[in-house]
Structure formats: C-alpha cells, structure tokens
Amino acid sequence: MLVSYQWLKDYVDLQMGPEELAEKLTMSGIEVEAVSSFNPGITNTVVGKVLSVEKHPEADKLFVAQVDTGSEISQVVAGIDNFQAGDLVPVAKPGAVLPGGFKIKKSKLRGVTSNGMLCSAEELGLELVHDHGILVLDEEYPVGTDIVTALALDDWILELGLTPNRSDCLGLLGAAYEVSAITGAALKIDFPEFPTVKEDIDNLVEVKIIDEDLCSRYSARIVKNVTVRPSPLWLQRRLLAAGIRPINNIVDVTNYVMWECNQPLHGFDYDRIKDKKIIVRKAEAGELLLTLDEQERKLDESMLVITDPSGPVALAGVMGGFSTEITEQTRTVLIEAACFEPTTIRRTSRNLGLRSESSLRFERGTDPEGTIRAASRAAQLMAQLSSGQVVEGVVDEYPRPVSNLVVPLRRDRAREIIGLDISDQEIKEIMEGLQFETEESGGLLHVTVPPRRSDITREIDLVEEIARIYGYEHIETTLPRGVITQGRKTREQHLEDLAKKLLVSFGLYEAITYSFIPFRQYDDLMLEKEDPLRNVVKVYNPLSEEQGVMRTTLLGNLLHSVKYNVNRNIHNIRLFELGSIFIPRESSSDTLPWERETLAVVLSGKWGIENWSQKPKQVDFYDLKGILELFIQKMGIENYSFSPVNHPAFHPGRAAEISIEGEKLGIMGEIHGEVMSRFDLEGKVYAAEIDFSRILKYAQLHTNFKTLPKYPAALRDLAVVVKDSISSDRIRQEILDTAGELVEELTLFDVYQGEQIPSGYRSLAYSIVYRSREKTLTDKEVNDLHQRVIDTLVKKFEARIRE
Amino acid sequence: MKDTLQDIKIRASQEIQEVLESEKLKGIQVKYLGKKGEITRVLRSMGSLSKEERPVIGNLANQVKEEISVLIEERKAQLARGEKAAQWEKERLDVTLPGNLPFFGQKHPLTLVMDEIKEIFLGMGFTIADGPEIETDYYNFEALNIPKEHPARDMQDSFYISEEIVLRTHTSPVQIRTMEKVAPEVPLRIIAPGKVYRRDDDATHSPMFHQVEGFAVDKDISLGDLKGTLLLFARQMFGKELKIRLRPSFFPFTEPSAEVDISCVMCRGEGCRVCGQSGWLEVLGAGMIHPRVLEVSGYNPEEVTGYAFGMGVERIAMLKYGFDDLRLFFSNDLRMLSQF
Ligand SMILES: [Zn+2]
After folding, report:
1. Of A250, A465, A596, B269, which sits most exposed with the smallest number of CB within 10 A?
2. A420-A421-A425-A426 Cα dihedral, nearest 10 degrees
3. Could you say which residues of chain A have pLDDT below 50?
4. Residue A263: which CATH number?
5. A49: CATH
C-alpha cells in the first residue's frame, strides 16, 4: 500500500515529518518498508505564463513563445503549439534538470535563442493523461511558482508492508485512524455535502442478491449527465502517488475513493444495463463474459458475477465487463459499492490470473458498513469533475447487516499477559485513541469495535492493541519465573551429535544437500526397475523436475557434491551427510511417510594432507571401511560384519554389505564405473550409506571398564598360506573360536601374494597376543594353545604354515 | 727435582689446553699420571733424596698430580660440552618449515550455528524436540490458526505432497505436537531445530532452509519474559553489547506478535549496507502463543500462557560469518566447508 504523505494529511492533523511518521508506524506494527520522494527529479522549473506564441521564422515545425517566468520574460522555442497566450505552462529554465538527468541549456534553434524549455508531462516524468504536447496547467498559480510545489510533487510516499490482519490500512482513512491512535493527532475525516437531483432511484435501478452468503451488501448510486474526460491534474497526480494510472474522470474517481476508503468501486455505463436490473449470483458453468481487457472468460459455479437479465456484466470484485464499460459516450454512471465474500474473490482471481487492487481488498475483507459512504463520496466527486448530477438516494441491498462488536476486556489479564503495569486510565485512553468506544461495567471494560477493524474479535486482540500502542519498547524485560526446568538432549540427539563429532575427527566434512532430488537420479545410480528405493514421495508442485521427489537415498546428492568440487578443481574429497530419507507408507496418500535418518560418506582423491614432508596416498576401499568400522565401534556396536554383496551402484567385486545381528545396516564400496560416468566423474569414488536409525537402535554408549591385566602376555606370530577365495574374516573367526578368551589381541599384519606363494593362494600373517586374566600362562600352555590354532587352520582351510 | 715437577706441570697443562678431542686426553693422563708416567718416575727416583727432602718432594709430586688430574677433568668436561654442541648444530631443523597438520574435518556451518543455539537454550533450561519434515495440513496450518483460504497462507508458499500433506513451511508444527503430548502439564520449555521448505529460490531464499523454533508454556509467562529470553539469547549469540528491538507484527499463531530486530552486528547500529542503513537486522519472529493454539493443543488458555519464537538459521549464519549468498550453504564446496 502506497501512502502519499500529503494526501494522508487531508484526514489527520499531522505535526511530524514523513521519516518520523514512518518510524512511529513501523514501531507500532505497520511496517513502512520505504519512504521515497515523489519528486521524479525536477529542478529549476517554474510555472510560466504564455504571453504570445508565433511561428518560427525559419522552421515550419517550430514555434517561438514569450513566457513570463516571474523573474523575467523569456523567449522559448517549442516544437508544438497546443497552448495559447494566457496559458500557464511548466518552463524549465536554463540550468534546470529534468527526470533522467536531462539538463536544460540556453540554446539557439535555427537562429532563434531559446532560454529554456516548455515541458510536457512525460518530460516531467509524470504519466498524466492530457492533450498531446506541452502540459497546460488547469489551475491558477502565481507566475514563477516552482512546478514541484504547483503540482504538489514535494510529497513523500510511504510504502506500507501490511500484514494480512491489517487490511483496514489499505485505505487512507484506515491509515489515518492508525496514525491518530499512535501519534495523538486529531482526525479530520469529513466528506463534503453535495447537491442531488430529486428522482426516485428505485425506479431507475433494481438490485437483487441471489447468493447472500457471497455478497452481504450491494449499494449503488447514480450520477447523470456526466461528461467523460481526463481528470483534473490534482487528482491524476494523487493517483500517480498511489501507483495507479489515471484513465478518465469516472474511472479515476472510483480508484481515488477506493484508495481513500478501502472500498473497491465499479462504475457501470448505466444505459447499457439491460432492463435496469442488477442480479448478483453465482455464475453458471460455461457462461461467458468478455472482461474489460477484451478477454473472453469462461465462468464456472465457483465465481460470483454481477448480471443483468441478458447475462453477466461483471466478475464481482475482480473485473468489469466490456459491454458496460465507461466510454466517452457514457452519460449516466451507476456506482457499485459492494461487500463480497473474500474466499470466492480469492479463488476467482487466482483461477483467472486476474489480481487487482480491487480483488486484493475484497480478498482481505472489506467493511460492509462503509459501502454507502464510499458510493456517495464517489458520486459527489464524479458530479464535481464531470459536470454531472447525483441522483438522490441510494439503492442498498443489505441482507446480512453487521453491527459493532462489543468485546469485554479484563484489564488484569492484559497486564499479566503483557507483563506491564499499566493503569486502567491508560488502557481506556488507548481504546479511545483507536476510536473504540468503551463502557465500564461489572469490573470489565466493554470495548465497542467498529467493523473496519475486523481483525479484532476477542480479548487477546485488544491486549495486542494495548501492547502495541503502548509500545513494545516500553515493556520491561523479565525472565520466566516458576519451576526451574533442566535442559536436556534425548539419547538420539546425543548419538547424532556424537556421530558428527566422530566423523569430523576422522577427517570428514559435513555436507547438507536438498531433501528433494530428480527422479532420474535412480537411473543414474543404475538401480533396478523394481528397487524399493524407487518408491518415492513425489512433490506435487516442485519448482522444477530437479527437485521433483523426496530422496530415498543420499548417495546421488553426495556424488553431485563430489562433481561440484571436482569442477572447481578440488579433488581430495571427504564428505558425510546425516539427514532424513523419506519412505512412503503403503496405505493412502494422506499418511505421513516414514522419515528415516541416514548417514552417507564419500571419499575420493588423496587421503591426508600433502606437504614437503609427507605424500598422502590415494584413498581406497579400506580407508572407507576403516572409517566405518571405527565409527560403528565408537557408537558402541560390536556384533557387526562386512560381507561381499552385489549392488548395481557399486563395483561388483568391491562392495560390502554391513550388518548387525543379521539386520542390514548399510552398504559400502567403490562406485561402479558406469555410475561414475553417469555422474560425469573420473577416477575412483568410495561411498557408503548407512541406516542411522539402526545405529540408534544398537548403539551402546555405556563403557564397562575392564581392569588392567595383572599377568604377563605371550606374543606369537602366525603366517598361513590359504586359497585366496577364503575370506580373512573366516580365518580370524576360526582363531578366535579356537583360542577363545585367551586371545587378547589379534592383528592381521600382512597380506601377501607373489613369489613363493602359489597362484590362487595368499599368505596371511597374524600376530596374536595370548593372555589369561587369572594366571601367568606357562610357555607350554601358550605353545599348546598356539599349536591347536595352527592345527585347526590346517585342518579347516588346508592351510600351510609359513616359517 | 722440584724443577722437574714444575716442568711436568707446565708441559702437562699446556698439552691439556691444546687437546681438541676428548679421546686424546686419555693419552695425556697415561703420559703424566699413569703407572709408568712421568710423576711416577719422579716418585720412584726419590730414593736419591735426603730424608728431609723426601716428604717435601713427595708432597709436591702429589700436589702436581692432583693439579693435572683436575685440569684433565675440567678439559674433559669442556670438550664434551663442545662436542654435544657440535652434535646439536648438526641436528638443527628449520623451524620455519610448515608443520604436518593433523587431519581433521568440520561440521557444516549451519550445524555449528544450530549447535550454538542449542547450547544457549539448553543452558536456559530448554529441552530439544524434533518433528517430521513432511507434515499434515493440520499441524502445519490448521492447528496454528491458519485455516484454508486464510490470507496468511500467502505468506508462505508451500510445497504440497497431496491435498492434506505438505513439506513443513516452518518448525512451528513441533509446538503443537509437543504441547499435545505434554498438556496439561507445565512448565514446558522447548526448542525445535530442523529443515523447512518454501517455494522460493534466489540469493536470499532457498527452497530448503533451517529454522529453530522455541516456546515456553507456564502459569504466568508474559511478553516481558519473551523479551528477556530473546535478549539473553541474542547477547550470547552475537555479543554482550547487542541490543534488541521488538516491533508489533502478525502471525496467526501468536498474539501479541512481534518481529525481533537486533542491533546490526556489522556496523553496531551506525547504519550500513547490510542493515539497509537502519542499524537494525530482522532475525526472529515471536509472540505470545495464541489462546486458540493453546486450546487445540490441550491447554486451558485461562490457566496458562506461553510465548513462541522462530528464527532462520541461515540468516543467523550469514550474519555471523558474513555470507552473502544463501545458496552457498548447500553447494558443499570444500573451500567453503574447510573455512570453519
Ligand atoms: Zn549495519
């Protein structure tokens, strides 16, 4: 909402400047987003009186005018002569600057000196409607008056960012009420009386409302014998200040009064309303209406229309019809001031893509009590500006009258909620400042709220009025008293924090990616057609297909992040993300999906920090596996295992499934070459994705401290040569099963294939620490135990022992 | 003989001074003090002396022997010091060469900011709550006093999954879910951080971003308490000197409602580009929980009151770290991530 500071002053006796007013409004809840000068950038331009106009002696298309600019008589050359001696025109004197930085100099045109320039409206930066050529002023001003003052361009525009509840300030009168309440300035809202012609208006028009729930009031007035022409400059200029383009005196008045009263109006060409009958009803499906913009609109039952017996003549509250439009031929105007139901207007304007200042106001809700005042104000202005006459009386259909609301207020309650020690008297004064009547009874203050403040319906709304008019800045700062509460995190929140801390300490950076992904990511990951991950929650109205579905995997996004970095020449990448995936529930579309926390890791490039003293190695499968193992262990999970698996996104021989106690925990491995090329990546990327909800399920953070060993340990090494198809995990498990608790530590310190080892075999070398918690093991005991281990491996795996 | 001893002493001390390697001192020791050394030789030849002279020369010889030993020991220590020093010199490092940095990752800046917010409120007795990112229309709108067709729905353009399911547009649904569970018990002090979604995408809007919701319900919570809580928070987050300002505003789920500004952290309130010359930065929306919202959540608004606030994490992170493009947060550019 654009508020002209000067225009606003018509209704309230303001004693402060625009900047101070803006600050006051903002601090009381009407945010002023900007204060800007209305002067489009005009200097040194004055009102001049034309003394004479003559043809240029040397040029057919030029004219020479003598103009009195107050200080002197200036000779000015013009390109047009749409003015005559006696006219007042804007004269830009030499040295003047016009909008756009255009500078005026003394010049010579075909031998004739021109001391400045006569200006058109465009040259002054104003979109006024007037005859082609120089702007001839339509009011008397002393010669030499600055044009900025004459046209009241020395104005300031306050741009209000209104919250949806304060639609009352979509009119200058509403804004004036607010300004008066917060500044104490006196209101001076007083529309002039006007003459009318005696005629029975009920004989001139009949209004019938069929759908009363969609139109609670319809008021109409008639103005006869109008002459449609451009509006006077003062009115056009005010519309420009409101951001509205002037058209003609009839349409301009409807807009002017809308800006004043927050009541959208529509002017019909009365003579083109069939049978002088107006019927307000829902449109019938398939009905057509040619709207003002000459578009044929197909209507349906959700829309409200103004009709005459021949059919729709306007789309209620949204746009008028072409057939009853005000034209230069219009002689009689019917002014409509109605109150329409907000939701209907909102839907209609949405569906047709027609949003206007009028529909905006109806959508927010207008004051049904204000229709007659607005219609009468418009009638008076129209008659005044178009040499017409207002017909006496108003046609007013008001099937559902509203009345003032009386809201009882407990002042103690207000003081408690705000935390403010404000007196009864101060509360009363605030209510009266808002022009709300009050009445004391039964210990309550009964506050009468006018319909223009439809946002106030209950006590809490009045409490807010008190707080905001009193000023939030004057409310004392306190802290909640009462029972002390203890802040805590849940087990899950602790575990999440711990997980991130661990991964960071392992050298990974945390990534955050969008929860929505393009569906084709599943193709890029080469997931099979029946892969359950393809069962996704679709976004009904995504910004683009790139954000079309809610992710069921984090892998694709992380691979994109790798690509993003590689494109920026960053090749050593180690990222993790901990976030939700969204799994649809089988049943209906109205149940919420399952949001499962998931952890993903990607590694690529070199591992470590390269400098003069150390050369990092390329990351490999086991770097990633080590991270995952230590992570799982540190989350207090012991019974996990890695086993080979086939997964379409991973290298067939380099992928492992991770599980805990038979439950699948996740997958890790080297990304498949084909997937790499689909993500436009080169080299190798290692990735893992883990169901974090299972980590949460099995995590055991309580540490049972084991007493330190009392008896000495015995160390033995063991190297076995076995077929390379036998997984190291099986050998490890066999050693542990055989030697039991006496194995304190088992380390695989070498894996070897090559010389001395037959092909198809490999050598695995272990160091084993044997120790008993009960006694010192003798050499014999250790040797026997170690021999049992050897014998078992030989027997089970046909192992050969390397000496 | 006296002269011989004097001569030995002079030669020995001279030789000792001239020695440069501690190894050679042993030879000198043998030469003068050894079993066949010069002093021994003198002592052995004492037989030719008179009874009176013998003890005198004997004493003198022992004295010289003692003196030479001391000189040798001193020289030995001296040489050892020099050799150590030479060794150290050989081992000298260029301490200005860069060190081998430990390998470390980092949390995302948004996580760092959320962690900080959580810590501050945990310290004030708040508990952390979570809620789903995909929400029902009821929790995201209806229960928060935003019925269908309410103009306030225009304030937040939503992503829909179906007619009744949306990507939550704010963390406020957690308010309702938590209150429903706990009502009518008080006190309740909760913060709820998380992802939220709105249909916007430019340098200052991301279709996904983060919010932290906070609220308290108790027997007599006031707007003044809200002011106090937020001031305490803002000062811990941005610095002791910080000021806050509450401006009346509108949210359907709070009343009275407020926009909360902090004094500009860039210019300390003087006015700069970041704050649009106003000296203030808008960082929070807040208010007293609307009685209707308390009611639908199972509280009696005549018995309890509450406040609620919500803040954008990206906004706070941008101010704290000086980011100018919101979208950078989700690029996962390691040049960005490794700066924290
Ligand atoms: Zn600033």
Report:
1. A596
2. -40
3. none
4. 3.50.40.10
5. 2.40.50.140
* Percent with pLDDT over 70 in chain B: 99
Residues of A in contact with B122 (CB under 8 A): 487-489
Cα(B259)–Cα(B245) distance, integer angstroms:
8
Q: Are A278 and A263 in contact (CB under 8 A)?
A: no
The pLDDT of residue A589 is 63
CB contact under 8 A, A487 and B122: yes
**Residue to substitute from A159, A510, A535, A627, interface B, most B β-carbons within 10 A:** A510
Confidence of residue B322 (pLDDT cuts 50, 70, 90): confident
Pair A584, A456 in one domain: no
CB spacing of B164 vs A27 below 8 angstroms: no
A515 contacts B197? CB cut-off 8 A: yes
> Residue A69 and residue A48: Cα distance in Å, rounded?
4
Rounded mean pLDDT of B145-168? 84
What ipTM is given for this predicted complex? 0.88
Residue A717, both tokens? 């090494």
| CATH code at position A640 | 3.30.930.10
Q: Is A594 on the interface with B (CB under 8 A)?
A: no
> How large is the average pLDDT for residues B60-81?
88
Contact B250 A346 (CB under 8 A): no
Cα-trace Rg, chain A: 42
Chain A residues close to B119, C-beta within 8 Å:
none
- For residues A169 and A49, state if they share a domain: no
pTM of the model: 0.86
Give Cα separations from A359 to A156, A189, A212, A480, A623 (angstroms). 26, 25, 19, 44, 64
Q: Are residues A626 and A738 in the same domain?
A: no
The token duo for A223 is 């103005």
A302 in contact with B, Cβ within 8 Å: no
pLDDT of residue A648: 96
Residue pair A341/A214 in contact by the 8 Å Cβ criterion: yes
Q: Are B166 and B144 in contact (CB under 8 A)?
A: no
Instruction: Write out chain A residues lying below 8 Å of B247, CB-based.
Output: 26-27, 29, 31, 472
| Bond into B187 cis (ω within 30) | yes
Nearest to A477 among B197, B231, B305 (CB): B231
Q: What is the mean pLDDT of residues B168-193?
A: 95
pLDDT at A683: 93
Euclidean distance between CA atoms A369 and B193, whole angstroms = 46
Split at pLDDT 50, 70, 90, the class of B45 is confident
Measure B239 CA to nearest chain A CA, in Å.
18
Using an 8 Å CB-CB cutoff, list chain B residues near A550. 134, 161
The whole-angstrom separation of Cα B297 and Cα B180 is: 5
Is A172 contained in some domain? yes
* CA B239–ligand 1 middle distance (angstroms): 15
**Residue A547 contacts B, CB cutoff 8 Å:** yes
Contacts of B337 in chain A (CB under 8 A): 509-511
Structural domain for A273, as ranges: 196-397
Q: Is the residue at A191 inside a domain?
A: no
Instruction: Indicate the number of domains in chain A.
Output: 6
What is the rounded CA–CA span in Å between residue A750 and residue A752? 6
pLDDT of residue B155: 62
User: From A506, which residue of chain B is nearest by alpha-carbon distance?
Assistant: B104
Residues of B in contact with A576 (CB under 8 A): 105
**Which one of A28, A477, A508 has the shortest CB-CB distance to B227?**
A477
> Residue A744: which CATH number?
3.30.70.380
SS3 category, A244: coil
The overall average pLDDT reported for chain A is 94
List the structure tokens of A179.
């300004």
pLDDT (0 to 100) of residue B269? 85
A267 and A120 share one domain:
no
Question: Closest-CA residue in chain B for A414?
Answer: B222
